[in-house]
Design a protein that fits this description.
The chain is mainly β. About 10% of the residues lie in helices and about 40% in strands. Strands 1, 2, 3, 4, 5, 6, 7, 8, 11, 12, 14 and 17 form a twelve-stranded mixed sheet that branches. The protein has a five-stranded mixed sheet with strand order 9-20-19-15-16, with no helix packed on it. A hairpin with a 3-residue loop joins strand 19 and strand 20.
Length: about 260
């Protein structure tokens, strides 16, 4: 099931995405869900057209835990070694935006990059999750763009500003709750031209590895997100660019880059 979060007439709701148009995006409907869907989606039967609503970030995470250098070719393209243990960092909740929202180019950087990633969405309160229970705590998966100020990442020892600035964590367009994440195509285009193409089977550490690793250190709550790393092919964005992240079985997350006003 695909679960979207959206606003309509000033109200925010969750809805199950239904295809009523034979694959035509214009025919997508949202069956409004009663309450918050983590404990089981109860459909209301009241439906609205996707074209009539504004998509919001599919979740509001208390934290986004991101993983660096989880694809060997990406580590190599930036001149880095593959880390012995998973390299993790945070992106704050204020960095999160949805599909269709603008990425605001920060005025303190001259080299902002896209990074297409599979995002894991947590569905239940959990800590020290054993490998065999990972599927029980994962709510689903969505597309992510780990937007990075590459010049700051290189010049500052900590990555808080480089990867945590406002609008640097697009998520969406919705959460897919029924998906095997082990071998999915991950693609990024800029202005319609392909820049990244990889598969989640190329990840050094799997979704199970990462949930176990992160939950050893911290409690995860419903809506928290783990970013799983990006394949090779990262590169710069400019004001006016439209960047799209597409993941097999989920959909496409699209954002335009604008200048800070």
């Amino acid at each position: 099931m695909r679960i979207a979060r959206f606003s309509i007439d000033g109200n925010v709701a969750f809805g199950a995405v239904e295809d009523a148009g034979g694959g035509d995006p214009a025919g997508l409907l949202l069956d409004i869900i009663k309450g918050v869907p983590y404990s089981g989606a109860q459909l209301s039967g009241t439906k609205v057209r996707l074209s009539e609503v504004r998509l919001l970030p599919p979740v509001l995470p208390s934290k986004v835990v991101a993983v660096g250098r989880n694809y060997a070719e990406h580590a190599a393209e930036l001149g880095n070694e593959v880390p012995e243990a998973a390299m993790t960092f945070f992106k704050p909740s204020t960095s999160v935006i949805g599909s269709g929202d603008p990425i605001v180019y920060p005025n303190f950087s001259d080299d902002v990059h896209y990074e297409a990633e599979l995002a894991v969405v947590i569905g239940t309160l959990c800590r020290e999750v054993p490998r065999e229970r990972v599927k029980d705590v994962v709510y689903g998966y969505t597309c992510a763009n780990d937007v990075t100020a590459r010049d700051l990442q290189k010049s500052e020892k900590q990555w808080a500003r480089a990867k945590g600035f406002d609008t640097s964590c697009p998520l969406g367009p919705w959460v897919e709750t029924e998906l095997d994440p082990s071998d999915l195509t991950v693609q990024c285009t800029v202005n319609g031209l392909q820049r990244q193409l990889g598969r989640t089977s190329e990840m050094i550490r799997t979704v199970e590895d990462l949930v176990v690793h992160v939950s050893e250190a911290m409690t995860l709550v419903p809506g928290d997100v783990i970013l799983t790393g990006t394949p090779a092919g990262v590169g710069p964005l400019s004001v006016g660019d439209e960047v799209a992240v597409t993941i097999e079985g989920i959909g496409t997350l699209t954002n335009k880059v604008i200048k800070r006003g």
